[in-house]
Amino acid sequence: MSDYLLETRDLTREFKGFVAVNQVNLRVRRGTIHALIGPNGAGKTTCFNLLTKFLAPSSGRILFDGHDITDEPPARIARRGVIRSFQISAVFPHLTVLENVRVALQRRLGTSFHFWKSERSLDGLNDRAIELLREVDLESYAAIPAVELSYGRKRALEIATTLAMDPKLMLLDEPTQGMGLEDVDRIRQLIKQVAAQRTVLMVEHNMSVVASIADTITVLQRGATLAEGPYAEVSKNPAVIEAYMGSASVELGAPH
User: Fold this and answer.
1) Which neighbouring-strand residues pair with 221?
2) Contacts of 19 (CB under 8 A, 6+ apart)
3) What are phi and psi of 40, to 5 degrees?
């Protein structure tokens, strides 16, 4: 078994002559937190879209857990265990916190489209749903409509629904975007906690978060890999500092 759960080989995506992702060779080691960073427009989200097949690559290959998944559809990739969260909060606002997690767990029963079944048929999922809520520190909010959660706790609920899909690889797209310091710290600790038994690939703009939890950092610029390594090494790379100058250079300092 390879040490790397996910690999890309010369992954490229062009849009009518514009190269958004340019021959990226990404290797995500099993059981680690790997951060994908870069200035705005560097190709980070496009890279995520390629990995989950929201976009098809123009060229290159994607390997996951030893399988070439380049030509597989998104649903099959998800069934393999590549599960993604998005920048925009994606919970069912008028379902309770518990019900949101149960919806994600329902896939295991194979009854997702059995609309004639009673809601009570899902009660057998409650124990596992509570376990997941406990894992993200939301157990005490189980009966509350999701719309009443703070923004940071909604993101924690999204992580719980992602965990309900039993991911081998969690793709987190800007998990702390738009948060205050207290919520950022909560999500930072949560990612570190859930990554103890899983592999995480995250796009993140907050360098304090990246510095404190990422094992490996890949820096993209104009769609290509600019640098890769641990934070202490990458943050001192002159090319990386120059890439961030005038936009986010202040964030490349030591973590708070």
Assistant:
1) 224
2) 12, 13, 223
3) -55, 135
Q: At what angle do helices 151-164 and 97-105 cross, to 10 degrees?
A: 20
In degrees rounded to 5, what are phi and psi of residue 35?
Answer: -105, 140
Element containing residue 163 per DSSP (H, E): helix 151-164
**CA angle, corner 217, sides to 44 and 235, nearest 5?**
110
Find, among 166, 171, 160, the residue nearest to 193 by Cα: 160
pTM of the model: 0.86
Sheet with 224-229, strands from edge to edge, namely: 82-85, 169-173, 199-203, 33-37, 216-221, 224-229
Class assignment of domain 1-81+169-256?
A: alpha beta
Looking at residue 81, its amino acid is G
Q: In this predicted model, what pLDDT tens digit does every residue of 89-126 receive, in sequence order?
A: 668 899 999 999 998 888 665 554 444 344 555 667 88
The residue extents of the domains of the chain are 1-81+169-256, 93-166
- Is residue 6 a contact partner of residue 169, using CB atoms and an 8 Å limit? yes
Three-state DSSP at 26 gives: coil
